[in-house]
Each structure stands twice: as structure tokens, then as C-alpha cells.
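Record 1 of the preview.
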Amino acid sequence: MPQKVAVLGTGKIGEALLSGVIRSGWPPADLFITARRPERAEELRVRHGVVPVTNQEAAKQADTLILTVKPQDMGALLDELAPHIPAGRLVISGAAGIPTTFLEERLPEGTPVVRVMTNTPALVDEAMSVISAGTHASAQHLAHAEEIFGAVGKTLRVPESQQDAATALSGSGPAYFYYLVEAMTDAGILLGLPRDKAHELIVQAAIGAAVMLRDSGEHPVKLRENVTSPAGTTINAIRELENHGVRAALIAALEAARDRSRELASGTSN
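->
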């Protein structure tokens, strides 16, 4: 039988995770949720058939706790949970920038902790969830985390030292693509296209390019070269992107996201 799983602080990502594991066959009666507002908890109960509980009840009753609160709220939540967590309870953290040691120091000695950074495409079962083990987490604990988060997309194990980089690339990654689509749509309008048609063209181009990257096995340089004819339209566009430092700007942006993830971990800023 599936283990009992509790999602604490159930926002959009937490709800996406719930709906995904239910579609994968997990009984809703074995899924507990907590929410700050009672009306939110009732909404989730009615929509998904899950069981609203308090944080303390979740700690006592669930086999796995998934903490999806904001990083600044994690310390207070751990203080509330710690007196009620039995030995061996698996705790999965989904908070950006919070290392497993932060949880381990505030939970009972030997508590297995797994750190997961997922992203918003979990809402459409296309998430990328990056998974790292804490000091006391075993291969079985990692496999259990993969089972849960695999219900809403792909999973990838990395050493925890790479989590800040993964946060910058895939955790924040969808926002970069939305930003590019927004900019390209505006360019389409400037070139004379109606907004709805420009949007449809760019979105389908993005979907097609992503599927080709995923399924062809080709390096992105090769795929780009296949579109880039001598003296053609694409090479002129690429030249302008290089002239304006787009590649360098993207690298700098991802470094900034990584650095912010490290700041969240160190507690140097709010």
C-alpha cells in the first residue's frame, strides 16, 4: 500500500504535486495537506479528496512530509514540527536555497532529509525536479522522492553542491523562456503582426524547438546550424543577438540567480 504523504503549505506547486500523484494512482485518503487558511484547506479537500490536518497532525501521522513553504517560513515550520516527528520520518524540502543541514539541525537526530527543487511546469506534468540527499537519506529515500515527483515530470539526482546551479537553470528557467516569448511577441507586433498571431507563432516555435532538443539527441549548435543558411535571415538575427551581448547577459543572469540561492541559504538577506 502507498505510504501516507503530507504536503505542508500547499500552494500551486503543492497542489500540482497532489493532483499528479493522485493521477498516478495514489489514494487521496493517504494524502494529507496543511494550509495557512482554513478555506484553502477546504477547497483542496473538495477538489481532490485529500485530508486537511494541522502541521502537528501531519508530523505524527504521515510517513513522508513534503515542506513547500517559502524559504523565510521554513525555520518557524521546523520548530513547530520537530517535537512531533518520530524517528525515521522522511522529510522532503522544496524550499529554494535551503540546504539539508538547515533542516537536519532543527529536526530530531538522524532524520532523513531530501532536498528537491522543482518548477512550475509541474502544473502540466512537465516539471524538472532536481533531487539531492541529506546526511541520513538512503537510496530508498531518494527513490521514494523520485516516485512522488516523477508523477509531475522528470527527476534528476545531483549532489547537493549543485543545487544552487540547478535552481538557477531549471527552478527559475521557465521564467526566462516566458521573458523571451514576451520579447519576441513584442518584436512580432513591431514587424506588423497582430499580438495573438505573433504569440501563437512564437509559442509553437518554442514547443517545436524544445521537442526537437529532447527527442533528436542533437547538440543545440547542430540544430541551430540546420536553420542558419549562408547570408540568410537567421544568421543576420544571430549576429544582432551576439552584437547585443545576449549570450553574456544570459550567463550573467543565471549567475545572479545562483548567487541569490546561496544568499537564501546563508541567511544574509531576507
